[in-house]
Amino acid sequence: MILDGTELGDLLALAEIPYRWGWELQSEWGEPSAPVAFNSVTDRYPVQAPTWVVIMQDFGEAIAPKIPAAPNYNSSLFVGAWDNYGAEQFLNYGRLSENLFMINWPICGNDYAEGVGRLIESEKAKAEFLQECRWYSQNFAHFIQNQLGRRYGLAEGVFPFAPTAFALHPYYRESRRLVGLTTVREQDILPVAGGKVASIYSDTIAIGNYANDHHYPGFNLPLQPKSIRWGGRWTGTPFTIPYRCLIPATTDNLLVCEKNISVSHIANGATRLQPVVMGIGQAAGMAAGMCVELGIQPRDLPVRALQEALLQDLTSPAAIVPLFNLDLLPNQPQWLDWQLYYLDNPEAYPPSGYFPGDYLHKYYDSDSDVFTGIFQRLNQQDYKFTIATPAAYQGQVWQLVTLRSHINHRLEAAVDGQLLTVRGRLNYSGNWLLVEEISN
Asked: Do 340 and 256 belong together in one domain?
């Protein structure tokens, strides 16, 4: 049993398994955000832009080594990169520990897609594109240093196997995409009418909840709304991944488990994210093992057996039905009960994404802190918090967010101007106070 977990779906090409590359028109599946006709954008950018991540470092009072410009440097390409955010928020977007910054910035930043079709033309053409892509990130880092000062430089030696500040290869947002037993389309990841979740596939084996995020340098693709506010922050409509999109339409003994699943170009903007791909990988590995044990082809594997194996995996139980208020640990009986209930009764899956009732569980970490301050409601699901105590943070204003459904309900019911005492953790990158408990 073979698994294709390559970044660009390389095994599909090597084995001559049918795949897609590029855009589908609206006439193909009726996707609302697909183009009606091919145009200059679809021709220039057949797939989304990759990004060659570079890690920069804040050297503080020391002077960082100068970052040289790479070939084809053009500062005008980067002008305005952080104009709408400010330099500090721009750097905080990818802030890491130890004064490091991940530079992966889509706005006049280091997304690169000139001649992106070269990735699958030939090894020579691919090598040329990758060299240009790496140079482009070096030039963005050079621009950042020139604009923000020699306090910032390259964090040499952070990646394994090479003393460099550059990732070992780019982050690819799109690859060859399998022609599978079913194809995930834009409609399958959008919220149902009047709801906040997408409908679930009966053969769901993984979940995602990211917004539909497309990257094309200098061009913003208008997309059907998929983002929602929940827990005081922006998130995306939860959706499911069907087992059938991992299986080739005609080829045996192979499963895909990366961005190469059977998905449309438009829907790939949400299914490509790492948490989704990790779930797909777990499901594909489990399915392959079961197929070997049973001596059957992936298309003949009983899906329910695979679903139960994922839900009851002893090492890492995997949720396959998204629920906003599943505030339970996988070792609690109700966690499995509700997953199985909606697999047995998909018609009962609530458009709100909430099962009846809440099971509360104290989640806060031992290193979380207690804060008292004034709650402010700016808008629906948009909260600010002015800290009174501890004294070290007095007067600071933070955005309140949470990952817990019962805390989300408490925040929705809180009164503007109310004094609150919360337990949580500060996230300096997003200026968030992540609330895990509310004491009053």
From this structure: yes
Q: Is the dihedral of CA 77, 82, 68, 134 positive or negative?
A: negative
Q: With contact defined as beta carbons under 8 Å apart, do 20 and 179 qualify?
A: yes
Residue 174, strand partner residues: none
184 and 61 in a single domain? The answer is no
pLDDT over 90 (residue 183): yes
Query: Within this chain, do residues 85 and 140 fall inside the same structural domain, yes or no?
Result: yes
Distance CA 150, CA 57 (A): 10
CA distance 54 to 153: 11
| 309 backbone dihedrals φ, ψ, rounded to 5° | -65, -40
Same domain (yes/no): 204, 289:
yes
Residue 232 structural domain: 2-22+174-348
Residue pair 54/137 in contact by the 8 Å Cβ criterion: yes
Q: What is the pLDDT of residues 390-424, one digit of tens each?
A: 999 999 999 999 998 889 999 999 999 999 999 99
Helix (H) or strand (E) holding 228: strand 227-230
Q: Does residue 41 form part of some domain?
A: no
Q: Write out the two tokens for 386.
A: 């002015």
Find the DSSP H helices in 202-302.
268-271, 274-294
Euclidean distance between the first and the last CA atom of the chain, given in angstroms as a whole number = 56
User: In whole angstroms, how far apart are CA 311 and each of 193, 244, 282, 320?
Assistant: 29, 18, 11, 7
Each residue of 123-137: pLDDT tens digit? Answer: 999 999 999 999 999
Q: Reply yes or no: is the peptide bond before residue 333 cis, omega within 30 of 0.
A: no
Tokens 């001559």 sit on residue: 16
This prediction's pTM: 0.93
Burial classification of residue 67, based on how many CB atoms lie within 10 Å of its CB (0-12 exposed, 13-18 middle, 19 or more buried): buried
DSSP, collapsed to helix, strand or coil, labels residue 345 as coil
Strands 227-230, 233-236: pairing is antiparallel
CATH number of the domain enclosing 429: 2.40.50.140
Cβ–Cβ < 8 Å for 175, 260: yes
pLDDT tens figures, 288-337: 999 999 999 999 999 999 999 999 999 999 999 999 987 777 877 888 99
CB-based burial label for 385 (10 Å; 0-12, 13-18, 19+): buried
Rounded to 5°, the CA angle 323-272-177 comes to 125
191-246 pLDDT tens trace: 999 999 999 999 999 999 999 999 999 889 999 999 899 999 999 999 999 999 99
Structural tokens at position 92: 């905080």
Question: Does residue 40 belong to any structural domain of this protein?
Answer: no
